[in-house]
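A quick word before the example. In earlier lectures we treated sequence and structure as two separate objects. From today on, think of them as two lines of the same record. Here is 1,4-dihydroxy-2-naphthoyl-CoA synthase written that way.
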Amino acid sequence: YPWETIKEYSEILFQYYEGVAKISINRPEKHNAFTPQTIKEMSEAMELARQDERVGVVILTGEGGKAFCSGGDQSVRGHGGYVGEDNVPRLNVLDLQMQIRRIPKPVIAMVAGWAIGGGHVLHVVCDLSIAADNARFGQTGPKVGSFDGGFGASYLARIVGQKKAREIWYLCDQYDAQDALQMGLVNKVVPLDQLEDMTLDWCRKILEKSPIALRMLKASFNAELDGQAGIQQLAGDATLLYYLSEEAKEGKDSFLQKRKPDFSKFPKFP
Ligand code: 2NE
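And the structure line, produced from the sequence above:
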């Protein structure tokens, strides 16, 4: 596909094609493990994709066909987090997880090869996951001295159930694409050479749908799990819709025109 580069980065690719933004980790020599810099770049790209009115769906993936992402780069893990060039330890992937959940557009994980550790959690928090038949899933935290007790535990348990989520974390086993499909961890499994075709096919179907309906649905799915923060997101979308109404405009206009608002013509629905 003729993907066009939106912005050049050092550790990711950020591309656009027909309504779709693709954010791809580009460290295949490390199975696409992330550093603080990788996450900084992904985070900026996600924000740009959010602001870009051409974009209706975001694909998250990894380059090379052998790994989606193998989690935090253990070779730069220091005292208190993953250390970048500024020598500051960070766990900025947690902020990226929030961005993936917050962006009011569907995010699809396109998974080839390893989705492991913090890389597994990244696909878990995406709206949808499409896996190639070579995909392998799992958590490694308790093996390598780490854990993600946030979405990595609670949201995973919402998806696969409490028993399975505990098994995944306590045993640190690896699961193939069919296992993942069976436990509802991915939406679809396709041969590796059809992965991008199928993902773009799903993107096209989504792009034909009402953007506001999709936005409200994403916020509604989130609200159930996210408590006050989820309600805030959903309520923000309700405010957006209200701002589009004549009723809300009457409030603003009356203030600017220094007159009393007249809401009498607006219906009081049962
Ligand atoms: C993914 C896995 C199972 C693949 O195994 P294999 O045998 O197919 O590949 P190999 O040889 O292990 O990996 C290829 C190269 O990639 C590097 C390896 O060191 C190797 O490099 P060379 O030795 O050839 O130079 N590599 C792979 N993953 C890496 C990583 N995460 N960091 C740095 N280098 C990595 C196997 O590679 C594996 O188990 N990888 C480690 C997975 C892991 O434990 N990730 C971190 C989990 S913790 C986390 O991500 C996290 C969190 O828990 C909470 C918050 C934030 C992050």
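Notice the following. The chain has a mean pLDDT of 97. We will return to this example when we discuss secondary structure assignment.
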